[in-house]
Amino acid sequence: MPSTLVEFMKLRKNMFGPIYDVRHTQLHHFHTVCGLQRFSDSLGIKRICGAAHQAGSDSLLTSLHIKDSKAYL
């Protein structure tokens, strides 16, 4: 275990790469507060399969959101 926060963050970044926070993006770049589905609908991102609040379906929607929202940032 790293002994400092800085060392921990470096190790985390090397192991997992960049971390994207959809809620942070929503609040600080789009100035809106709503759920994942409504936010994705507002960006024109469609849920491909499954229902809301199912892990696989929400994960896929989140990955599509991150991919598409990079164009806005």
Automatic annotation (TrEMBL):
Q: Which residues form a coiled coil?
A: none
What superkingdom heads the lineage? Eukaryota
Q: Name one GO cellular component term.
A: CCR4-NOT complex
By its UniProt entry, which SUPFAM superfamilies does this protein fall under?
Ribonuclease H-like
InterPro entries under this entry? Answer: CNOT7/CNOT8/Pop2, RNaseH-like_sf, RNaseH_sf
Molecular function GO terms recorded: nucleic acid binding; poly(A)-specific ribonuclease activity
**Protein name, please?**
Uncharacterized protein
Species this protein is from:
Ceratopteris richardii
